[in-house]
Amino acid sequence: NAGVMQNPRHLVRRRGQEARLRCSPMKGHSHVYWYRQLPEEGLKFMVYLQKENIIDESGMPKERFSAEFPKEGPSILRIQQVVRGDSAAYFCASGARNTEAFFGQGTRLTVV
Amino acid sequence: RKEVEQDPGPFNVPEGATVAFNCTYSNSASQSFFWYRQDCRKEPKLLMSVYSSGNEDGRFTAQLNRASQYISLLIRDSKLSDSATYLCVVRSSGSARQLTFGSGTQLTVLP
To answer: Which of A25, B85, B91, B111 has the lowest tally of Cβ within 10 angstroms?
Structure first.
């Protein structure tokens, strides 16, 4: 049973480009959480999704950021028109309804 | 007030020491509680769930006090490999069952 898979592990984008971060949950998990960790800071909740539904996006910036978790395929966190301040580690976690969550290794996004 | 608050530390303790971390949460309807550890900004890993009756896993003991909205983690006989950031995590109740992380407590175990 593979763990939570995130790719790419490292992503470099120029200002103004789009970044797409992918997360494949553990087998049997239908809940996905995305977190962002800025340098020298703690984990900040962004969005919580179940298959095809956004349950809580209270941590998502209002502009440029979107997330989806389609019926088939991985969850995608999309950042449009990236800026330097978007540089961070983005972690995805998956779980079942009332269980603990398990994290992927993260995607390190660098905006140059 | 933050939803989940932890003392950031750092805690620097000698090998073999006992160290305790505390965490408070603001939402009295919170349902589930966990401790995670994070090494050198790698992915957080589940250390243990926290049950109302308290629970122990080897050198680690977790306790929950719902009346005071307080969670603790005790590490006995600390090892060098225990050096990490310890994250208190709370799951909210209701439809928005997100996991909320504290900012973490940094522990360094010294030889």
So the answer is: B111
